[in-house]
Specification:
The complex is a heterodimer of chains A (113) and B (108).
Chain A lengths: L4 E3 L2 E4 L5 E6 L6 E7 L6 E7 L2 E4 L8 E4 L6 E5 L8 E8 L6 E3 L3 E5 L1
Chain B lengths: L3 E3 L4 E4 L4 E7 L6 E7 L6 E6 L4 E3 L2 E6 L4 E6 L8 E9 L2 E4 L3 E6 L1
Parallel strand pairs in B: 2-11
Antiparallel strand pairs in B: 1-3, 3-8, 4-5, 4-9, 6-7, 7-8, 9-10, 9-11
The chains are: A mainly beta (113), B mainly beta (108).
């Protein structure tokens, strides 16, 4: 596609529900990143992939958070048993290679009520 | 210590002024560096990469000091449209780490 696409753009869910956030990177991009961003803060690293391999998941806050990229393209970030503190903007980015610039999608605004 | 630290500002400058700010990083093995710009409620967008020899893109100049582990951004002849948050980004073995951002407001 022309750019990184994230869906849904907005998600409101009840506490305790599971949510799945989708990221469709730029075609051919090797690396895919997930970030979480609170208002007034920079993007906080969650995890990243090269192809289908998860290279670093040190930023995932706890075991309720997981991510996958099974075919090296689309990725899903899953949050189980959501809590109010999970409310944030979740951003996905992709880059052509491991040392090149990353391009962001428009993000998914998650609100847990 | 945070991996990437920035002065949050805000820097309030008049149109036409020069503004500069730094970013420090903790890992000396970091491999590549970038400045991103983020407008309110929008996604971050690449402003420029930062090269070892320093580089310029129009009114914007970026410098890298590996010995002291900091990068800088200088904006000359500021425009109203330069008002934004500027994010410092450091790449270490593929992991992109962002600073919290420096807010710049250019006033008429």
């Amino acid at each position: 596609g022309a750019g990184v696409s994230q869906s849904p753009r907005y998600k409101v869910t009840k506490r305790g529900q599971d949510v799945a956030l989708r990221c469709d990177p730029i075609s051919g991009h090797v690396s895919l990143y997930w970030y979480r961003q609170a208002l007034g803060q920079g993007p906080e690293f969650l995890t990243y992939f090269n192809y289908e391999a998860q290279q670093d998941k040190s930023g995932l806050p706890n075991d309720r958070f997981s991510a996958e990229r099974p075919e090296g393209s689309i990725s899903t970030l899953t949050i189980q048993r959501t809590e109010q503190r999970d409310s944030a903007m979740y951003r996905c980015a992709s880059s052509l290679d491991v040392n090149t610039e990353a391009f962001f999608g428009q993000g998914t605004r998650l609100t847990v009520v | 210590r945070k991996e990437v630290e920035q002065d949050p500002g805000p820097f309030n400058v008049p149109e036409g002024a020069t503004v500069a700010f730094n970013c420090t990083y903790s890992n000396s093995a970091s491999q590549s560096f970038f400045w991103y710009r983020q407008d309110c409620r929008k996604e971050p967008k690449l402003l420029m990469s930062v090269y070892s020899s320093g580089n310029e893109d129009g009114r914007f100049t970026a410098q890298l000091n590996r010995a002291s582990q900091y990068i800088s951004l200088l904006i000359r002849d500021s425009k109203l449209s330069d008002s934004a948050t500027y994010l410092c980004v450091v790449n270490m073995s593929g992991k992109l780490s962002f600073g919290a951002g420096t807010t710049v407001t250019v006033r008429a």
